[in-house]
Amino acid sequence: MIAHLQRASNTEGLLSYLYGPGERGDHVSPRLIAGEGHGAPIELLAEPGSLPYLAHALDAPVERLGTRVPAQPTWVCSVRSDPRQPDLTDSQWAAVARRLVDVTGIAPEGDPDACRWIAVRNRPRQVHVVATIAREDGSLHNGYRDAFRLQSECQLLAAELGHLPIAPQSTPRTQETRMPSPSITITAEPSGSVSAKGASDDLSATLLKHAGFQQIDDWYGRRHRLPTTTPTDDRAAIATHAAEMLRAARYGVDLDPALDTTKAFTSANPLGPYAAGAELLRLTEQIRSAETGVDLKQALDHLLDPEHGALERIREALEAAGEQITDLDDEAFQLADRFGFAEDFVHSAMSELVDSDDELLGVGRGQQPSDQAQTRSRWLPQFRGAAVAASPAAAKAQVSASPDSRSTQPSAAGLPPRAPGPRL
To answer: Whose CB has fewer CB within 10 Å in the chain, the N or C terminal residue?
Structure first.
């Protein structure tokens, strides 16, 4: 069982996608199986023609936040089970959804001020849990470790359902006997030539000749040396290649550091073959050297850009790794799942930082006047009705609100970007 966590900015658009045909037309009989609306009749509103009212019912606590509305207030968790196991019933999926909202703190059991949420099924072996992160008492859900808690609970659920494979018992193996291999020394001689001395067996000789060494048999015995016509720049590469092949064959190799290209790091490439790591290291230094919030934002754009940033590239690489593992070996689904979990963690980190641009620009500028404070508002449907019911805690929060806060009007200039719908 795997959980994929996302955040969205438009609850109505998300519900339209879940109750619609889907990107590939694979949504079958979309239906509500569980939820908590704190007085709002979500069961009656969970129909294709009433989705705007259902979205407004879920968004009611968000609307009461005023200027504190986050850019992505909708919490979306998609859970799928092992396709090799029987599908769960609607009641079983409903129980799974309740456990997930409980363990993450979206809706702890018995909490009268928990977030509003619903669970929707539209495909076999899958459920989508949709919630808004504004609680009935006016506070916001802290989703710092949601992804970790979700995956831990999914592992526990899979174990309880018997979906985890039983690990085969290991059979004792006879102790492997390994003959000590002679050591080979590859050095750069004062004359400038490169020689390999030590082992004199046929295997080591074959490996050295394959790397480019010449074999010399004289009264000193069998030795190997690079041709004197070998270019200076190629000597270290050949010696390093020979050492790698010998070590793979379990020979002990003492390679002259001056000939080891894996350690010949330069300022232009401080991490050797790890070019991506070197780029991130340079980015880290750029972040540390930022003197203003603008400089810091420009440096962090390379990390946080949702389309071309380093975190997005890392997320794509982890996702591709999981898919490739599945393509290469159907039985390695547990390893593929681990890469999927890691991809979810990176995606959660990106979601936490998605709306930090304005705050970064304000770093180091000091306190701004109150009349210049930036406000954000969120589009909500214009209709009102009995579908929205506030909890006693929400009504108490409205009574205690100041007149200034009630008179604040939403500004159309602060509209968050609207996505057509997440990929689920």
So the answer is: C
